[in-house]
Amino acid sequence: MTVVIEARDVEFAFGQTPALRGASVAVEAGEILAIMGPSGSGKSTLLHCLAGILVPDAGEVLFDGIRVDALAETQRSSLRRDRFGFVFQFGQLVPELTAAENVALPLLLSGVHRKQALPRAYAWFARLGLDGLEQRRSGELSGGQAQRVALARGMVTEPQVLFADEPTGALDSLTGEQVMDLLVGAAREQGTTVILVTHEPRIAAYADREVMVRDGRVNAPDRIAS
Amino acid sequence: MSVPLTLLGLLEREPSHGYDLKRDYDAFFGRGKPLPFGQVYSTLSRLARDGKVVISDVAPGSGPDRKRYVITDVGATEVEQWLTQPVDPEPHLQTVLFAKVVLALMLDRPAAEYLDTQRSAHLHRMRELTEIKRAGSLVDALLADHGLYHLEADLRWIEMTGARLDALRKEVRR
Ligand SMILES: Nc1ncnc2c1ncn2[C@@H]1O[C@H](COP(=O)(O)OP(=O)(O)O)[C@@H](O)[C@H]1O
Ligand SMILES: [Mg+2]
Questions:
Q1: B49 CB contacts (<8 Å, ≥6 apart)?
Q2: Does the keyword ATP-binding apply (chain A) (predicted)?
Q3: By three-state DSSP, how is residue A170 classified?
Q4: What is the structure's pLDDT at B48?
Q5: How distant, in Å, are the alpha carbons of A5, B86, B132, B141, B153 from that of B145?
Q6: Do A221 and B122 touch (CB under 8 A)?
Q7: Full domain range(s) for residue B32
Q8: Chain A, nearest residue to B160 by Cα
């Protein structure tokens, strides 16, 4: 298997607070990886470094052979827009837009014409069991529906890597598992690599593999033969 | 709860008499169910028969407690294997896992690593159950969920214990 994205000895500090102290992790193409660990251990910071949102103080981030940490901000921003998808704990839908426009947004920002972007967005509503909700605003959606819309928005550009930071953290167990089921189903169909941050074992169990972050370092358990 | 392995583990600290083993077993692992003397001595003689302990010296007089037991290499290897291997991820493993953690701390072994190994065995089983849940009927899903919630409870215990290992070490070491 080929490694698609990798952090090597990444260090990052927020001012005087070290968040990552030499974190290394490699993710294979099409793999769904869960990043687990206690609150404050550095999970989100690691995800942000991998996704080119934060630039490490030391170490390297490689995506598809590219040194992400060495890119200029404009290049990192187009990488994020064109090759990556994102889902966060709180969907962060734009309240003024309809659900369909929210899903189409990453396409519109990539320069896809509205005429092509909206049908591609609509296709995701059927796929994620959201039929009939296309014209709703975020205030008119339940938590689970809003998170499924956010998932559609994360997947609509058919990203190579989907970054999901506690995507079910604000949902009850059943709704959270429905979102995970859809996320995993869509990612597998599309061959998308997923980096999933969660502190919940039942959510991590949807992944192919888990790593533990502790005090800014990654602890990968020896793989147990299946 | 494996009495033979726990007694072997206690013997790895230092050679002991049956009475001392019973006292420590009751204090740390008995939880209100003291180990009968008869079981201590029958277990020790089976361990001796199997070459896992030897009797180092016999004090003069009579009675079973004249004998001092010493763990052998075979016995120590068995303790090592038991401690390093994760328990099958079934519900209700707490007592076994608890005994392993306490003994590991007493013996100055890497208890945190054992917990990590156990966590990954649990997560492995949880992935299998999640796959069953995704592929199967609602009945399969509900049965899988039952297992998943129990395993999750174990994992929480593992996290809490992992976070308190330093304090626990102080309490069980002499
Ligand atoms: N914006 C920030 N400013 C200052 N410190 C931060 C910031 N974000 C995170 N931290 C600190 O960095 C460490 C790691 O945080 P984070 O990566 O968010 O952990 P996790 O996602 O595992 O909960 C913590 O000590 C946290 O307090
Ligand atoms: Mg976080």
A1: none
A2: yes
A3: coil
A4: 95
A5: 33, 22, 10, 6, 12
A6: no
A7: 3-84
A8: A38
